[in-house]
Specification:
15 strands; single chain; Phosphorylase Kinase, domain 1; 19% strand; alpha/beta; Rossmann fold; 416 residues; 3 domains; Transferase(Phosphotransferase), domain 1
Length: 416
Amino acid sequence: MKLLIADDNPVWRKLMQAAIAPWGYRVVFAENGREALDALESDDPPRLALLDWQMPEIEGVEVCRRIKQNPEAPFTYIILLTSRDREEDMIEGLDAGADDYLTKPIVAALLKSRLASARRIVEAVPPAQWTKPQVDGFDIHHLIGKGAFATVWRATHVATGRLAAIKIIRADLATDLVFERFAREVQVMRKMNHPGIAAIYASHLERDFAYYAMELIDGESLGHYVASQKPKATKIIEMMAQICDALQHAHSQNIIHRDVKPSNVMVGRDGQPKLVDFGLSKSMFRAYGGPSSNETSEGSVLGTPLFMSPEQARGDADRVDHRSDLYAVATMLYLFLLREHPHGVGSMGREETIQTIATTEAKRASIINEKFNPQLDDILAKCLATEPDERYQTAGEFATALRGFLHDRAASRTGL
């Protein structure tokens, strides 16, 4: 399989070539982002790519974003490489559509394992192009994003003129399990009606063609919003409380999101955060049949590792409930305020991240910053407790605690 290595450091490229040579890949190189983009948009593009974050002409994260939003490009598994041990980079990379990330210096055995996993995924997805779809009642404009089995398109509902985002599953590639999850996502979203959750307008579920049209949020992901707008800490805290409001509604419908993360929260121009992507959600009382609802058919833990709760990281499906969503919100808040992960997993790979979250306690915020506000420190520590019974028991309780802190802070004019 053809593998692209894009990095502007000739010494590093040579070292990578020597390490990867015995693994059976056909390696091509790029010295800058422009060369990498040209290679990935060529007639015979690599299906695997290692992109250094910082490159001349075009940064690796921007190359990733362009490829993932290009409807003419085949599915390419992209691993972003960074020398900076910063959680913000991971969030931005995942927002750009990266499939994985690694922090330099890279251990050869870890890279070999990650490439092998990526290769299995790519081999399961034929290199066919995504064609512009035809959906009754909608004018399709352009691609917003794509994954291995589905695409999201910007569209207009002809009858009302309302903008929509249409998610379409690719029937020729989707397995029965993927289709079941897609159908489950539609079912879940139809149950909810809340200003903090993207509304679904229409759907069609047949094995040969399935889609749903949802509210198009004119804005950006929460991760990108925080990075670009640099909101005050009080604004971030209020947004987390609003996300808790949305989760409280979902939980009241017996729905657990299970993949709350910055890229699954969109922020509109009015500053309102909205939860999207309930593809991994499940009922609080019953999961659909097949493999454990917290695992893939191969037994791999589902979800984005950075924002997993300990019970999710352990693969303990019976203990994953609405309080796991609260752990994810607390992790986001901790990361945005302190620029460090509560489990210190910034430089770790996926497997090590999962293992660390499963087996270690979250650090109190005051350990990272001794001047951190004690009241907020206690709130975060409670929601990041290893045992779910020791956390806030509802999203409403967590939201009340956050707003109580904001009220007390305003009254006393104390800092974080």
